[in-house]
Amino acid sequence: MDSSYDVCVVGAGVMGSSTARHLAKIGKKTLLLEQFPLPHWRGSSHGQTRVFRCVDPEPHIVKMANDALKMWRDIQNQAGETILIENVGMLEVEEPPGTNLKTEEHYLRRENIDYQFLSSKDLKDQFPGLVYGPGYCAIYEKSAGILMADKCLKHLQKQFVESGGTLYDRSEVIKIQPDASGVTVLTNRSSYRCKKIIVTAGPWVNKVLKPLGIQLDVKPVQAPFLYWKVKQPGAYDFTKFPIFYDVSTSDGRYVYGLPSFEYPGLIKLGPAGKAQQEAAYSTPIDPDMRDSTMTITEGSIAAAKDYIKQHLPFVDGTKPAIVELCMYTLSFDRNFILDKHPEYNNVIIAAGFSGQGFKHGPVVGKILSDLALDRLSAYDLSPFRISKYLQQKSSL
Ligand SMILES: Cc1cc2nc3c(=O)[nH]c(=O)nc-3n(C[C@H](O)[C@H](O)[C@H](O)COP(=O)(O)OP(=O)(O)OC[C@H]3O[C@@H](n4cnc5c(N)ncnc54)[C@H](O)[C@@H]3O)c2cc1C
């Protein structure tokens, strides 16, 4: 037996790293365990970029994102390098009559988030790289930006260790044994004792939870990154062109896009939203076999091609220049799970971040820490209750 900790966190993705950092900062003796050597590219948090935005159809998510912005700024100040590029701006576009946007506008106003409501004429005048028919409208969230995902992770982990935390990579948690006075954690290398354990295992969550007798209604799914060549140099550069997200529903699919940033001369554009997620949910993958089971579906490429043809006049939509695959953990309703194990008060679980969790990392870290320390949360945790997602009982 190595040592004893206040809290052990399983999994050093953005959620585990943010949680561990927060706990160490408030003086808790914290152990962060990661199965792979760090840094690694096999979970959901790797890569160069993630979108940071506040606009969302769920009011509690808008509030969380707005709070997370301040926390990312603090992390960045301590990091001493840019991890969040603010004010890239984000356009959320919708076909007439713009029903989704009208609701979302209300939530932004409630949180005092700076935005503009754009008519189709405003859109045409301000963003000639996007072409939409009459009646389209958009919310323009000015402060939205780009989180540098790999750098965020590096600094969260660095700040955790600098605050006195212990981080062991190449440490796969094999068994979690809760009892009346704490938890014993067994890894491939050692065993540890802690008062509380927080499971932030991303796509592996059900593998980790199986010996604890529960399975969640979440699935690891494939997520493609598609990059397309820009025909008119500079037309979609991030210094003058925003992130965009089309939430029109008549054709049953949403599309998101990022300006040229990661690869010069290429923009990122791919399917998002309900239809894509329903398709992904019906074909889950095994996170341990991701490279042998992940394949890019022709449907995702066809939807993106079609969108480019209709709306992005300066992009070559013949075929993607680069295709990269990633995976995330989808819950059936795209909501997060942040709660205690139904039987073990000393086991806290976070899962189901459904392709939109990265930006919330620091707030999730605070919420999970409060749960572990039996402190009252500043957030209404009712949307995140585990009971809705309990699938079945497996034998202990
Ligand atoms: C293609 C793509 C695009 C996205 N775009 C956005 C975006 O624009 N904006 C946004 O906010 N979010 C976005 N997301 C979502 C966001 O990246 C995820 O919600 C977030 O990274 C999930 O983090 P996590 O910590 O829960 O999981 P992970 O990053 O997967 O971390 C889990 C960790 O647990 C470790 N682990 C698992 N089992 C064990 C074990 N037994 N022992 C020890 N360690 C273990 C894993 O190795 C892994 O490191 C996107 C995701 C993808 C894939």
TrEMBL record:
<keyword id="KW-0560">Oxidoreductase</keyword>
<dbReference type="InterPro" id="IPR036188">
    <property type="entry name" value="FAD/NAD-bd_sf"/>
</dbReference>
<dbReference type="InterPro" id="IPR045170">
    <property type="entry name" value="MTOX"/>
</dbReference>
<comment type="similarity">
    <text>Belongs to the MSOX/MTOX family.</text>
</comment>
<feature type="domain" description="FAD dependent oxidoreductase">
    <location>
        <begin position="6"/>
        <end position="371"/>
    </location>
</feature>
<dbReference type="InterPro" id="IPR006076">
    <property type="entry name" value="FAD-dep_OxRdtase"/>
</dbReference>
<dbReference type="GO" id="GO:0005777">
    <property type="term" value="C:peroxisome"/>
</dbReference>
<dbReference type="GO" id="GO:0050660">
    <property type="term" value="F:flavin adenine dinucleotide binding"/>
</dbReference>
<keyword id="KW-0274">FAD</keyword>
<dbReference type="Pfam" id="PF01266">
    <property type="entry name" value="DAO"/>
</dbReference>
<dbReference type="GO" id="GO:0050031">
    <property type="term" value="F:L-pipecolate oxidase activity"/>
</dbReference>
<protein>
    <recommendedName>
        <fullName>FAD dependent oxidoreductase domain-containing protein</fullName>
    </recommendedName>
</protein>
<keyword id="KW-0285">Flavoprotein</keyword>
<dbReference type="GO" id="GO:0033514">
    <property type="term" value="P:L-lysine catabolic process to acetyl-CoA via L-pipecolate"/>
</dbReference>
<dbReference type="GO" id="GO:0008115">
    <property type="term" value="F:sarcosine oxidase activity"/>
</dbReference>
